[in-house]
Amino acid sequence: MLPLPGAPSSSWARFRERLSASFSGADPRVCVAFWLFGLINNVLYVIILSAALDLVGPSVPKGVVLLADVIPSFGTKLVAPYFIHVVPYSVRVVIFVLLSAIGMLLVAMSPSYTDGGMISTKIAGIILASVSSGGGELSFLGLTHFYGPFSLAAWGSGTGAAGLVGAGAYALATTSFGLSVRTALLASACLPAVMVVSFFTILSRSPMQHPRLAVQADYHAVGHEDRLVGERDESNSEVDDVKETPTESGNLRWQHIKANLQRAKGLFFPFMLPLLLVYVAEYTINQGVAPTLLFPLTETPFAHFRAFYPAYNAIYQMGVFISRSSTPFFRIHDLYFPSFLQVVNLVILTLHALFNFIPSVYIVFAIIFWEGLLGGLVYVNTFAEIGERVPREDREFSLGATTVSDSGGICIAGFVNHVLGRPSTKFRKIQVLAVFLFWSTYLLRGNKHGPPIIRSVSSHLSAKLSVWQTTVGVFMWLYFCRNFAKIVGLECPEPLANLYSRSFFRATWITTALDAGFWTAMKVKPKWLRDIASLAFTVYYLFAAERADEKVRRVRATLTVEHLRVSWNKGTTPYLWALASLVRPRLTKYPPRAIRIPRPPQSSYTEPTNAWLYFDGPLSALRDQTCVILDIPGGGYVAMSPRASEDRLLAWAGKTKVPILSLDYRKAPEYPYPYALNECYDVYHTIVTTHGRCLGLSGNVQPRIVLTGDSAGGNLAVGTALMALQSGSADSPRWQGEHMLPRPDGLVLAYPALNMRVESWMTEEQMSLIQDKSARRTNESVLRQKNMDYQRLTPFTSPGPSTEDLLHDSSSDLDLKADDVAHGASKKLEEKLKADSLAAQAVAVAQSYHPKQIRTRLAVSSMISYVHDRILTPEMMRAMIILYIGPHNRPDFSTDFLLSPVLAPEALLARFPKTYIVTGERDPLVDDTVIFAGRLRQAKLHQFRERQELGLEKSRRAFNEKDHVEVSLLPGISHGFLQMAGFFPDSWKHINKCASWIQDLFEAAERRKSSSSLLQSLHGGAQYYQVPKTDANGGSSRNHKRRLTGESSGDEDRPLEMSLGRMTPLDPNHPTDGGDRPLRRKSSSGTPHVHLQDSAPNDNDIQTTSGSQSKNASRGRHPQPKGLSRRRRDAPTKLTMPPARDYIAAALETPPVKRRDRSIGSLPSEEDLLGRRMNGLAGGLMGIGEGAQTP
């Protein structure tokens, strides 16, 4: 060790003498060459890490660059030492220089992320540079064997300088000099050429040609005699190596590799392990701990917090440079001691990051500098010790093989940061493969009884246990350990344990497994393979229920529209469709028929509506039908066609014997609100104006129509009914006609989504609707659930006294005046709470609540109470609402009752038809259902009382709410149970109940029609929506002409083909003149008619036979004309109601009224903040990713 100047035993002259003696025998050319080798080989690694943000952009984790820069180098150092000795050094240098240059050129020349370039090319270039760096390090360290300890010292100093030079040069080039990132990287691609110049020009070749000259007195090999023999043999081998013509052709044989593995095994504990430990601690500090070491800016020399980490890195690199340059002056032989000190540094800095006990940032600076000193010291002294303690014949291999420790330490530190820091989901694939490969290799090549510690136990047990016993025992204990918490009662509570009934919980278990299986197989490209994989994964998740729950929970947290469609359309995939058809009983004799319903002439859309007709009878029997069920299926507004509800629709068709028209309306986000609502209303409008001829009915009478819908379809069904009630009212647009459409004869709704405002707390008005005396028995379970919300949170704690109780106590004295109530309440609060500050609060509370006592407790909405529902979660509700509304609409959620029918005005609800609703008590939407039913009941009651006051109702007659609305709440059941008939048998009972309701509605409509015939005769026998007839001389006797149908039903499983002529006007004296329109044609006699015929067997949809022109493919809109044929744009909201007359007849004439304004506004401007926010949210759900802009 070199004594310091000024010490008692030294002087400046003596110091200079010893300093000169320390460099005695050093060749300047060798030192310069190896210093450049170390600098250039490592500087590219530093430049790449410094440019990580500029290379991949802010959206890609910087750990990707680190992994691409470290793992290839680690793999090269791990494998290459066992075969690279057959490649001459000159060839190695050329190869590594080419790899580095090509890699940096790929990184520099590929388009940047701002220009839309892919990062795959850049990652490939980084990998090439990393392979070059790893191979160069093990090769140049092996080369130091020929040039003595000064070459090793120069190499270490050059690698230490690379950290300072690389980061500083890149920062100067891109900031001070103003060079672009591409130019700076192109310049760095020229740096590897320095290694070629150093090797072939600066470096002396004589030590390689005369290897004995490289032997210095500083080498102390073990065994003098063996060393001489080894030197003699090595001389010949080295001369052969210098000539770069290997004489032995069997160096790559397995025996040679096994010998090298034995050499590497002997290197692990004395050299590899200390170097590994110091790098694990060092890079754990740099990557994980250092970014958290922050102090108040007023106590530091920095102006910004982002300056801390670069300062730490610069101080660390300075320590590394100094220590790696220290071998000529300072040596250590115990490598574990500095490794232990480095671990101590890690512990200290980690504790400070947790408990913040270091008072000054300058102490952290000193620790970071000390960390760099220890890291560089262990690095250079490890290889120096190998040069002294390893036999000469093994030295070259040992130097190269030990280099794997530093890269291995960096990788392990990355794993530690991955586990303790923010986990990377993409990195888990590498982690799993690494663990699998490691243990597979160990089982194949390692000792069959395992590591030395357990080898004796394994060998002893193997004599007593067979392979079968061992396998079964291992799996049995794994199963026991996994369920140990359940056995001893320490498992976490199951939130759904008491939420559902047993049968419904089993159904949700199957549904969750299906969702998890289909979502797992989403990315499989071939459709046939994806269908098979979906079923295979489903079978797995049926047994691994916890894995299924975890999979579904994570997917729902990052939902896209594709996830929703895969989940809800899974029932129409080939194998599940075949299975459902197999287990479903035969409900009808006739299959459903595809059909298209044309738009009414006043509509602003021209594309017909796709639908499916469910009718248990031949097509010829349709003309005898006078009732129609218009079904609107659910699916969150984004998925599910009528075929997904086959169980329900076939059962209804078989039981009611009534044609069911189930709409396959266009879905969001391609067709956002209000497209689907307008489409449903158009179909209703067409059925009414054509008297059902668009379905194949005779058209002689107005058909009775019942609207049905489930979930989102229930929202659209109620919205359609509200629009029908609005038609002909004040401010209604003319496309709805100047006369009021007849209202539906009833509605049957299943778990409808009636409120787009996802609320957390129930208002007092909402609670009063639920607590209404007439509905208290029906809503008993809902009220009980809300009363239990508080009790579940405090099962073992008694709540404190309420202010209301204090007021009651303070005012119990009859002599207490009203002005003293506040004072009395304050006094009570002071006595009970022992706090002066609460007295004033009690005074204010007493004064505000004394006039009017609160009537309801704090109640949580069902959406929050059932937030863990397995069928419908808040994340799904959020996604559906955003997708349905779209990024360019901004409706008023507090007033738009067509979006949230629960907000419908009382004037409309008073005219609403009879409504049946079935829903589950555990449905997150149950509150909105009972609130809507309560508002409907309240509106009918107010109308009934007004009629009694006017003498239109008998004063003794009692109000019967079941004449207007009935709600069936199913205990222990949540959302979507009608879709689960295949594995939830109770669904059939509820499906049949809905069919009975539909029959009751048609019977009630028939009774109303009979009772209203007298009133119609009082109006001169005029019938509304009268069909104009012609006499025998005037042409056709009716407007409906059928052909090519006959009485046979043999081909009725094929789609129907419809073409609609001029529709019958609402007012016979005022025909609508819309000009030439698509889907319209006349017969030879000039009479408008409808054609109903079978189409080709290969058609899946109805093809219109009219000569319509090509319109907009996405919306099918016409330019907006003026006059009576003006088209509508949006669903209406603003309303002025006419006098209520629905108690007289289903449709009495109303005078013409004004048109209405639009209900929602379109926001095409990207400047609007809320518009951009909605655009961003919808874009994320639709998978647009970075294209969406979210402020």
Automatic annotation (TrEMBL):
GO molecular function, one term: sterol ester esterase activity
Biased composition (Polar residues): 1095-1113
Residue ranges annotated for the Alpha/beta hydrolase fold-3 domain, each copy included: 634-798, 843-940
Domain of life: Eukaryota
Membrane topology label: Multi-pass membrane protein
UniProt keyword terms in alphabetical order: Membrane, Transmembrane, Transmembrane helix
Region Disordered, residue ranges: 791-810, 1026-1137, 1148-1167
Transmembrane parts of this sequence: 30-52, 91-111, 123-143, 150-172, 184-203, 267-285, 305-323, 335-355, 361-384, 396-415
GO process annotations (BP): triglyceride catabolic process
Family designation: Belongs to the battenin family.
Protein name per its UniProtKB record: CLN3 protein-domain-containing protein
Species the sequence originates in: Aspergillus bertholletiae
Upper classification of the organism: Eukaryota, Fungi, Dikarya, Ascomycota, Pezizomycotina
